[in-house]
């Protein structure tokens, strides 16, 4: 690639700074995005963790929700971590700790349950088998994490923890219940950048 891939990290609330530093370390031109035109100018988009209700409201207020949908429809890779996964989901499962009905972007054909690992295990670390990412187990940090309770036919499961789906891909859309930006292991970000790279060459 002649030019560095431009990655918009949605910077409404939450832990976007850590994503920016990993992406920059990997050679991407990563920048915080708060406006629709900043999303439109990107080759790929990351929706970070944080509080999905708050982030969702701000996306709608600034029209960033439609900009992300348009980018995804144009085939640009989008990756949501934790709250970001919740916001990408088609559906939030009702009957879990949180009520369903929260508006989402609906770009990933999955249903997620919020805060689904229970209050006793607010945050934890686990080693995940994720063959698509590599043979070494992936160290994953979960913080008040959701998990995927249903996947549609075009959704591929990339990792499972305790029988629960925590990492999925549907074409160029990626979602993880965990935070890869909080570990030294940058293979998930590399994988995401490889999707961006692939898109630019197709
Ligand atoms: N519990 C948060 C939510 O439901 C997500 C937590 C996170 O992003 N680490 O929005």
What is the rounded Rg? 15 Å
In the CATH classification, which architecture applies? 3-Layer(aba) Sandwich
Oligomer: single chain
Name every ligand kind in the structure.
glutamine
Q: Uncertain spans, ≥5 residues at pLDDT below 50?
A: none
Number of helices: 6
Q: How many domains make up the coordinates?
A: 1
Q: What composes the largest sheet?
A: 7 strands, mixed
> What is the highest CATH level, the class?
Alpha Beta
Strand order of the largest sheet: 2-1-3-4-12-11-10
Distance from first to last alpha carbon: 12 Å
Count the beta strands: 12
Average residue pLDDT: 92
Strand content: 25-35%
- By CATH, the superfamily comes out as Class I glutamine amidotransferase (GATase) domain
Assign an overall shape: globular
* Helix/strand class: alpha/beta
The helix-strand sequence is EHEHEHHEHEEEEEEEEH
CATH topology, by name, is Rossmann fold
What does this structure look like?
The chain has one domain: Class I glutamine amidotransferase (GATase) domain (Rossmann fold), CATH 3.40.50. The strands form three sheets. A seven-stranded mixed β-sheet has the order 2-1-3-4-12-11-10. A three-stranded mixed β-sheet has the order 5-6-9. It is an alpha/beta fold. The protein binds glutamine (GLN).
Task: Give the arrangement of secondary structure elements.
Layout: E1 6-10, H1 16-25, E2 29-33, H2 36-40, E3 44-47, H3 52-61, H4 64-73, E4 78-81, H5 83-88, E5 89-92, E6 108-113, E7 123-128, E8 138-143, E9 147-151, E10 156-161, E11 164-170, E12 173-176, H6 187-201
Parallel strand pairs: 1-2, 1-3, 3-4, 4-12, 5-6
Antiparallel strand pairs: 6-9, 7-8, 10-11, 11-12
The structure holds glutamine.
């Amino acid at each position: 690639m002649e030019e560095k891939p431009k990655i918009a990290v949605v910077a409404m609330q939450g832990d976007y700074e850590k994503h920016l530093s990993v992406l920059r370390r990997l050679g991407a031109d990563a920048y915080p995005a708060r406006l629709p035109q900043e999303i439109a100018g990107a080759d790929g988009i990351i929706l970070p963790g944080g509080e999905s209700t708050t982030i969702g409201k701000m996306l709608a207020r600034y029209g960033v929700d439609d900009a992300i949908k348009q980018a995804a429809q144009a085939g640009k890779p989008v990756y949501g971590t934790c709250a970001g996964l919740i916001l990408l989901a088609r559906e939030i499962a009702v009957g879990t700790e949180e009520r369903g009905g929260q508006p989402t972007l609906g770009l990933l054909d999955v249903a997620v349950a919020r805060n689904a690992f229970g209050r006793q295990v607010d945050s934890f670390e686990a080693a995940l088998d994720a063959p698509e990412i590599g043979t070494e187990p992936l160290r994953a940090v979960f913080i008040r994490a959701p998990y995927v309770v249903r996947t549609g036919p075009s959704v591929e499961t990339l990792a499972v923890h305790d029988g629960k789906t925590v990492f999925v891909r549907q074409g160029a859309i990626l979602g993880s219940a965990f935070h890869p930006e909080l570990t030294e292991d940058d293979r998930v970000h590399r994988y995401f950048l490889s999707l961006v790279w692939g898109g630019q060459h197709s």
